Amino acid sequence: MLFTMIRFVVSVLLVAWLVSVLLSIYAFDVPISEHGDLSAIPGPTLANVWWFIQISDIHISKYENPGAISDFKIFCSVTIDVIRPELVLATGDLTHARDGAFSTQFKEEWHVYKKILDDTGVTQKTKWIDMRGNHDAFDILTWSQENNYYREFSAGRATGKKLQRVSSYVHRKEFGNYHFIVVDLCPHPGPKRPFNFFGILDEAATAELSSTARSMGLANATFVAGHYPLSVVHMAHRPSVENVLQNANAYLCGHLHTMYDGVTKLHTLHKSGYLELELGDWKYNRRFRVIAVDHDLMSFTDASFGNWPIILVTNPKDARYISALEPWQRMIHSTHIRILIFSPTLVESVLVSIDNGVVNTKANQVGGPLFVASWEPNHFHSGLHTITVTVKDTDGHATSITQPFSLDGSRMTLKSALSSFILLTDFCILGRVLFVSSLLFVIVPLIVARFASSWIQSKKQDTLADRYIIVASKNSLFYPHVMYAFYLALGPWFVGEIVTDHWGIVFAYGIYVAGHFLPEGLTFIYAFIQLLFVNLALLWYTSSLMNSRHVRTTASGLFKFTSLLMRESILVWTVVYQCWCAYTVFTAYGIWAILISPGCTWSLLFTAYIAVKSRAVSRIYT
Q1: Does residue 103 lie within any of the structural domains?
Q2: 374/5 Cα distance (integer angstroms)
Q3: Is there a single domain that holds both residue 535 and residue 453?
Q4: pLDDT over threshold 70, residue 464
């Protein structure tokens, strides 16, 4: 009775701790500070407003998806000419650098990228800032290596012999300065796929980021950009990075595409008060983002290539994306609703409705793409409201958008729980937790069953404890299970050509190549899956087989057949999974990666041994 009470109390405390941790990560409120600067009020003229474009994951490829190349050329000519951005931010994966499972840099792809920029003259029309993504860093040993074509063909022409992890640009307007900080988060050296899915921000790069941010001084708005979402970046010192980002309006990134169309909008608000806005890919989804800064209030819309007109309401701005750094009080003092409308044809009409018809009015063009309509913001001074804008052009296209707004600082929560989970979870830490948990789940019960079996009350029933006791009592089964699990945690998995002509060693906790150790979060996740699908599956197979022979049962023939089918299916699954892993490693890192592969290919020998030995030992109890 006492043991039951203690177990109940401990369980409640653990659940309470877990809930508190989850709430601190995913459920928080970011206060919006008071901004008293009312020197510039949104009004009826094309003043104090400018806009730029973000595009990501272009993936120019010599083998796949040729339509992405032709559409990108149209984007750089027609789309840019219609929108006329003052800046374009290309956040990585400019080229694909893959032929199936094989990954390396192809000069032809970079030629195509550079030729499109040159032929369209886009870099003469606007400031074009491009950065590397993980595909642009595939199979690159050093920054000065000949196959680092980014140095030669990127718009920035980063031709220096040393990698510059952080760069900056100040966009100067007559009404203020706007800062851009670009961070190269790619692993260095750059392994072949798949082990460069996570970004790295080491101590030197973190210090460079902090120094750059300090040296830039004050700005009307600051944007930080990188290829990787922060949730998949291994950071040497996360608090220092947060100190920089908390002074930024937004962190702009790409990399995750649309999660195979599972999450079309990956946006979230961080506890420090800045927005993280991941952009869907150009490769398959032809996404790009238009971002406007109107009287220092940032607004944006994620657009699809070829869909016109594009509507962006800049005043009042969307209540879901109010930043703590913005002078949001300018909205309550504004005299006009302000809308940017981009269309290759003439706009015929713009209708504005607030709160489902409480206010209906027409907006008029006052210059460029800006349309305005006078309003009385005091009528909407408290709480959340909605604004709907309907646009018709002379070609008969009609587009309508609806978004929330507030004038008292009320913020509507971003509703996507999946989006928040993806962007707010530190997957580097999660991978470690999952790996260590699965490792302990393999090892600890066997050790306890081995050395404390006399304390466990077993009545020869079909319980989990009985199964572990049977396996743990046999040296020929106990030691292989425990020792191989320990090996996966500590020893090298395989040795292979991680970068062309350079061998490396892959561990569960990272990669060692060319004198560098790369902490790679994906290796922990692979190790977790290996423990789950191989070690734990084989442990279940062994214990189930041993227990079926050890315990005399009166179960029906159908039940016995079902148990046999399930048990053998698990064994077949582990073999199929390991063969698939071996094939993946072979296609990525070469033949030696499967020949010298204790953690991958050799696990098939472990599987064969466990299957044969389990059957041999179980016959003793027949």
Answers
A1: no
A2: 68
A3: yes
A4: no
For residue 115, give the H/E element and its range. Answer: helix 107-120
In a domain, 292, yes or no: no
pTM to 2 decimals? 0.91
Residue 60 pLDDT greater than 70, yes or no: yes
Residue 3: which pLDDT band, with cuts at 50, 70 and 90? very low
Domain co-membership, 400 together with 541: no
**Could you tell me the two tokens for 185?**
């988060």
Considering the domain boundaries, does residue 192 fall inside one?
no
Give the model's pLDDT for residue 417.
82
C-beta neighbour count of 92 within 10 angstroms: 27
- Mean pLDDT taken over the chain: 87
In whole angstroms, give the CA distance from residue 561 to residue 501. 52
- Which of residues 415 and 566 earns the better pLDDT score? 566
Quickly state the pLDDT bin for 547 (edges 50, 70, 90).
Answer: low
Mean pLDDT, residues 353-357: 92
Question: How far is 553 from 291, CA to CA, in rounded Å?
Answer: 69
Are 449 and 539 contained in the same domain?
yes
**Distance, CA of 196 to CA of 3 (rounded, Å):** 48
For residue 224, give every residue at least 6 positions away whose Cβ sits within 8 Å of its Cβ, in sequence order, or none.
180, 181, 182, 183, 244, 245, 248, 250, 251, 252
Enclosing domain of residue 541: 427-621
Kindly state whether residues 409 and 503 are assigned to the same domain. Answer: no
Q: What CA–CA distance (Å, rounded) separates 570 from 541?
A: 7
Whether 198 maps to a domain, the answer reads: no
Number of H helices, E strands in the chain: 17, 27
pLDDT in the model for residue 1:
46
Name 200's bridge partners: 234
Let me know whether 441 and 576 are in one domain: yes
pLDDT confidence of residue 65 = 87
